[in-house]
Amino acid sequence: MARRAAGHFIGWFRPQRGAGGPPLQLQLYAAIRAGVLDGRLGPGQRLPSSRALAEELGLSRNTVLGAYDRLVAEGYLAVRPASGVYVADDVPADLGQAARAASGPAGFSDRGHRLIAAAPDRAAPATARPFAVGLPALADFPLETWRRLTNRRLRLPETGLMAGGDPQGLPVLRQALASYLTEARGLTCTADQLLVVSGAQQALDLVGRVLLDPGDLAVVEDPGYAGAREALAAVGARLEAVPVDAQGLDPEQVAGLKAAPKLIAVTPSHQFPLGGTMPLARRLGLLAVARERGSMIVEDDYDCEYRYGGPPLPALQGLEDTAGPDGGRVIYVGTFSKVLFPGLRIGYLVLPPRLVAGFVRAKTTADGHGALLPQAVLADFIAEGHLAQHVRRMRKLYRERQQALLGALQRHCPGLRVGPAEAGLHLVAEFTDQRDDKAIALAASAQGLTVAPLSRYAIRRQLSGLLLGYAAFPPAELERAAQLLGKLLK
C-alpha cells in the first residue's frame, strides 16, 4: 500500500538533479504544497511513509523528513501518532490565494510549476554530431525539389497562402495525407479526421489538454518518450509507468491495473527508445482492453516509414472497429521530423470523428493555425510522389548505415549489448555492468559525440546504456565515432 501511495507522486513530481537546481528538499516541499493547494491532495488524505516515498523517488529519507517537517510546521500536513502523515483537515479553502498574495508578484501557475517539474532533464536539440538521435540524413534530402516546389507556389497569382488559414490545416494537405496514410500505413480515415499541428509534441500537448483533467490516470511506457509524459504530467495527470519488453507494451498489464486509465500512450510500431515492435496479438489485445475499460489510446507512429526486417504491421488505428457507439478509441500521431527534416515542424493527428471539433478548437486557441506555405509545398511533395520516392531511397541508405554501425560497435565497443535493429534511426546499446550512462554521455560530448543516456527515458526501471543515432552519418564517420566511443568506455 505504501509503495502504491508513493507511486501517486510520480505523475507530477520528478526531482531535478544536478548543479544549479534548487535543493531536493525544497523541490519536494514545493510539490506537496502545490498538491494541497490545487486539490490533488485532499484534506485527510494519507501520504506515503517517508521511507516509502524516499525509495520511490530515489531521495534520502532525511530529505523527505525535512520536507514533511516543514509542511507540518506550516499547517499543510498533520501527524497522527501511530498512524502516519496526512493532509491537514482544516486547510482553508482560500489558502492558495492568500499564499500567492503574500509571496509578492505573480509567478507561475500550478500548471506552470507542473510543466517545469515534468521536464527536469530534457534532451538538447539534436546537432549534427555522431550519434545524434532522431536526426535524418539532411544532406541527402532532395532540397532542389523542395526549392522548386516552393518557388512554384510563390509564383502563383493567388494570395490565399498569405491570408489566414484553416486551423485544421490546409485542405489540400489533409487530403494528400489521408490518401498517403491509407495506402502506406493502412489507416481508415478521411481528410476531415486530420488535424495538422506543429510537430508531434504539439499533438501530444493537445491530447493532454483536451482529454485529461488533473488526477486522471494515464498509462505511459517505461522506458518511454519523455515528451509524452511531460505533456501529460503538465495537465496534472497521474502517470502509471508500465514496463515494456522486447515486444513493447503488454496489454495484460494494463488490464490488471486497479483503476481504469483514461489514456494509454504507446509507440507500437517502433517502441521508443528500446526499439521493439508490438505483434498483432498484442495490438488486438490492447484495443480490446481500451474498449473494455473505456480508455483512449494515443498511437505515436514517429518513424514508421523506416522498417528494415519482418513484415509491416498495420497501425492500431486501422485495426479498430469504429462502427460502435464510441466511434473509435485510437488517436494516431504522426510527424515529418524524421522522414523529411526536423525544421519543417509539421505533424498531424488522425482523430475519431467525435473528437475533431474539440481538438480544432484547442488548436485555434493555441496558435490559430500553422504556416500555410510549408503545408502547401508538403502537399505537392506528397501528391507528386516525391515523398514515396524519398522514403524508398532513405530506407535503403539507413539500412546500410545501420549495418555499418553494428559492425563498428562489434569491433570497437565489445562491452555494449546492442538491442533490436529491425526499424528506426537509432540503436540501443546497453551496458552489461550498469555504468553511469549520464556521466559517459557527458564525457562523450566533450569528445564531439552526441549520445543519449538510456536512463533519461526510464521512470522506475533501472537502465544503463546509450542511444546511438546513425541515419545522418556516412559509414566512415560512424567508424571513427565508434572508435572514439570505444576508447571512452575502456
Describe this protein's structure:
The chain has 490 residues and is of the alpha/beta class. The protein has helices at 2-7, 24-37, 50-57, 61-73, 95-102, 110-118, 143-155, 171-184, 199-211, 226-234, 251-255, 280-293, 316-319, 356-367, 372-383, 386-412, 437-446, 475-489; strands at residues 77-80, 84-87, 194-197, 217-222, 238-243, 263-266, 296-300, 330-335, 347-350, 416-418, 426-431, 452-453, 465-469. It folds into 3 domains: 2-115, Winged helix-like DNA-binding domain superfamily/Winged helix DNA-binding domain (Arc Repressor Mutant, subunit A, Orthogonal Bundle), CATH 1.10.10; 141-386, Type I PLP-dependent aspartate aminotransferase-like (Major domain) (Aspartate Aminotransferase, domain 2); 388-489, Aspartate Aminotransferase, domain 1 (Alpha-Beta Complex), CATH 3.90.1150. It has 18 helices and 13 strands. The longest helix has 27 residues, at 386-412.
